[in-house]
Amino acid sequence: MSSPTEFKIIIVGGGVAGLTLANMLEKFGLDYVLLESHEAIAPQVGASIGLFPNGLRILDQLGIHDEIKDVFKGNVPYAKTHSRNQAGKVVSTIGNMSEHLEKRHGYGLLFFDRQVLLQILYDNIQDKSKILTGQKFSSAELDDEGVTAVCANGSTYHGTFLIGADGIHSKVRTVMRSWGNKYEPGVFDVKEEDEVPCYYKCSFGIALNVPNWVGGEQHIVTGPERSQLVVSGPDNRVYWFLFEKLPEPRYGKDIPRYSKKDEEDFVNHNANLPITESITFGQVFACRLTSTLTPLHEVTYKKWFFRRFITFGDSAHKPNPIGGQGGNGAIESCAELINALLETKKNRGDSLSNLTTKEVEDVFAKMQNARYQRAKEIVALSHKMQALNAYENPLLSTVMLEHLGPLAGPESVLCMMGQVLLGGTRMKTLPIPKRPRLIPYNDELPAVPIKEDSVSWLVRGGQVASMAALILVSAKAFRLPFDEIAKWAAEEPVVIRWFGQTKASDFLNSLVSVLAILVDHNPATRLQVANFLFQLVSPLLIYTIEANRVGNQGTPLALDLLYSFGMQVQGIGRIGPLHAALQSVFTHERPTGRHVPVETAKALIPAITLGYVIPTIMVFARTPNTVAWQHALALWQFAPPLVGFLTRGISSLLKSYQRGIGKSEEDEKDGLERYKNKDVPILNSVYTYAFAAQATVHIASMLYAWAHPELSIFKTFFQVPNPFNPDWNLPTVGAKLGVFFKYDMLLASAASFASGLYSIWDLRRLGHVETRDALIAGASTIAGQFLVGPGAAWAGLWYWRENRLAGLTTRCQ
Predict the structure, then answer these.
(1) Which residues form the signal peptide (predicted)?
(2) In 3-state terms, what secondary structure has residue 497?
(3) What is the distance between the alpha carbons of residues 85 and 710, in angstroms, rounded to a whole number?
């Protein structure tokens, strides 16, 4: 037995949490003993485990990642991940899920026997004398110098503190709470154990050689009150989870434990439940090696420790297994305990001897503070995922799973997974092996993310409210004098009839009349309109780019044609604020969502030049041929949406050409092309083009107004009447149209300016840029409004943003 003053940890439980912690303690030369109740350290209990990147990153620090990956013998698992409805029909498919995760996060998804992982963890331990089997923990004695574990066979073990890594039915937790209630009544909520909820039961197990099973695939099957996760494993194994909602939630002691007869009844009831269109649950179950029916507790206990006892893993935080984070969360808790221990050791002169109870509790408090909120969020997210898959809210599940999910594509699913993965922890004093990845973990970002949801929602709410205010102003300020336009058109008729003698031609000609009046009007109006129309290059390009980003698919931002048509019908002064508000709510948050298909990026400059820049130049290049000029004015009415159509057409031609010369479609088909950043230099050229064109027009316009003896920069571009004044008393139809276009430009510029500032804030909120960089970008955006104009300033900001996001993907290469 060790001396009471020597540092030693007692670990109860030889599962994933216990053996992982044992490996960590050995790595840092910290003494321990592990007590496992089973006679074998890696018993076959019919369970599988899914290791995700957040868990694998920590295991990689221990040097066992490659050994785990070798279980698959070089075969990349999960060539296809299918989402299926209750009939087993495919709703959506993601190709190469594990490769996606590996490229994004440095590690893939590895699903295999839990027994195999336990054996790997055990084999990695050098001093196996510290791992004791057949030692069933039964009670403990607590004193000021340490704790003594008592096993059912009478064996006793003394240590500095005792860790309960013994699962949801933790004996250590029971003993710990009894000591707490004895010494400090009220330290634990006496009702907490009885309030632990159970909403679902689950059949899980391992099958072998299932007929008609396609290896390398996994299936997520959704449906009312039931969902399934069925996954391929190594050596022709199949791992299944069938979740069934209980008729009503059960709590605490009322949560049932199931017998083999219960399992038999469950299987008979669900035997014909489809997994695919050709395989049922019963067919998989018939090929079982092992199986279990169990209730699913879902809980994050409020307090994980008392004096010299602490619990973690399922004994402290137990999520629904649908999210695969139970084992990974336990690994994270091990890492945070090590971090807290080593920090204390450093602060005590590199010694952990003679730790007082207060010092031990300080270590435990640091560990729980580091893990509690994340563990609680994972339990909540897993519950929501299960509720969605089991159609607890049928309307929400139908919309999300059957419509929006497939429309949004793989990026939305991968980002939702990343939401959990990126917040993972690590052992701070051990290096992380170099594994190329495109998305930094939160602890690898340039800046610490701003986690206060209240601040984020306040800023987002302010953005939406300010854009709504701009739209309200437009409702008051947009006063087109249609009767006077019609009268002018009758006196100086538009002779073209693109759509024959129809109302469509009449409407088009009225729009032609608007531009004709302005271009024929005084030099101030002509100058303002010329400057304004060229400032639309950035909105058209950026709306098109954002619509084609993989991270914006399935959101309103993907509707670029709607915005370009809306610009012509409602004015950019309304569409700009609308788009800015939607972007603050729906824009992608991961650097991988930034990607634009290369062919689309290549199509942008030809599309904007042919579809918008040339038609706009033709508006102001009037010739004596009035009919030809009117045709040019009519063509311009279609210029904004023409950019979108040309982008689609040119990109389709480029794709066809690439396929024609034998370019592989594999990466494109599986969505792996997005990880190569080939679009970045092309998009940089697009932003440079837009910046140069718009800055040139803006600077030339300002210089012309400054040099012209009859013009004033302020009056030409900024002076407008009060929008809430009912009578503006403007003398001519040209003056009224000029005010409309001024308001249109000012409101659009305000929207693009606000959108730019919000995008800078969003990058800082997510930790993608440092505060200093964000402030410089904000100041540059403000200065750019005046120096190069709103359009060029927006293009310049998007150039900076594009490269900051792309730069994140190279930080961990």
Answers:
(1) none
(2) coil
(3) 70
Strand order in the sheet with 217-221: 90-95, 80-84, 217-221, 226-232, 237-251, 197-208, 288-297
3-state secondary structure of 548: helix
Q: Could you list the mean pLDDT of each consecutive 10-residue stretch along the chain, which spans 813 residues?
A: 76 97 98 96 83 98 96 82 97 92 94 95 97 98 95 98 97 98 95 97 97 94 97 94 98 96 98 98 97 97 98 97 96 98 97 96 98 97 98 96 90 92 96 93 94 88 97 92 66 69 71 64 84 96 97 95 93 96 94 95 98 91 79 84 97 88 60 88 98 97 93 91 89 81 95 97 96 97 96 98 90 63
DSSP 611: I
Rounded Cα–Cα distance for residues 146 and 783 (Å)? 65
DSSP conformational letter for 280: B
CB 242 within 8 A of CB 226: yes
Q: What tokens does 373 get?
A: 């909120």
- Residue of 21, 29, 38, 49 lying closest to 122 (CA atoms): 21
Contact 552, 775 (CB under 8 A): no
- Please name the residue that has the structure tokens 């809306």: 566
Look up residue 85 and give its two tokens: 């409805």
For the record, the structure tokens of 277 come out as 């269109």
| Tokens found for residue 93 | 């498919």
Question: How many CB atoms neighbour CB 460 within 10 A?
Answer: 17
Q: How far is residue 177's CA from residue 183's CA, in Å, rounded to a whole number?
A: 10
3-state secondary structure 416-479: HHHHHHCCCCCCCCCCCCCCCCCCCCHHHCCCCCCCCHHHHHHHHHHHHHHHHHHHHHHHHHCC
User: What pLDDT was estimated at residue 759?
Assistant: 98
Choose among 273, 261, 279: nearest CA to 225: 273
d(CA 570, CA 206): 60
Q: Quick check: 132 and 34 in contact, CB under 8 A? A: yes
Burial class (CB in 10 A: 0-12, 13-18, 19+), 349: exposed
Residue 172, CA atoms < 13 Å, CB-side half-sphere: 33
Per-residue DSSP letter, 496:
-
The secondary element (H helix, E strand) that includes residue 239 is: strand 237-251
**Dist CA 580 CA 589 (whole Å):** 16
Domains of the chain: 9-444 (3.50.50.60), 453-811 (no CATH)
| pLDDT on residue 1 | 46
Kindly state the helix (H) or strand (E) to which residue 576 belongs, with its residue range: helix 572-586
Measure Cα distances from 657 to 114, 163, 182, 540, 652 in Å: 49, 63, 78, 26, 9
Helix (H, G, I), strand (E, B) or coil at 589: coil
Say what the pLDDT of residue 300 is: 98
For tokens 């994270």, name the residue.
Answer: 332
Tell me the CA end-to-end span of the chain in Å, nearest whole number.
49
Alpha-carbon torsion (121, 124, 130, 132), positive or negative: positive
Distance CA 121, CA 131 (A): 11
Distance CA 432, CA 65 (A): 11
| CB atoms inside a 10 Å sphere around CB 428 | 12
Torsions phi, psi of 316, nearest 5?
A: -125, -35
In this structure, are residues 748 and 570 in contact, taking their beta carbons and an 8 Å threshold?
Answer: no
Tokens of 16: 């994933």
Are 84 and 276 in contact by the 8 Å Cβ rule? The answer is: yes
Whole-number Å distance between alpha carbons of 517 and 633: 11
Among residues 767, 29, 776, 725, the alpha carbon closest in space to that of 451 is found at: 767
Task: Copy the structure tokens of residue 571.
Answer: 């004015």
Alpha-carbon distance 73 to 68, whole Å? Answer: 10
Q: Any idea what DSSP says for residue 223?
A: -
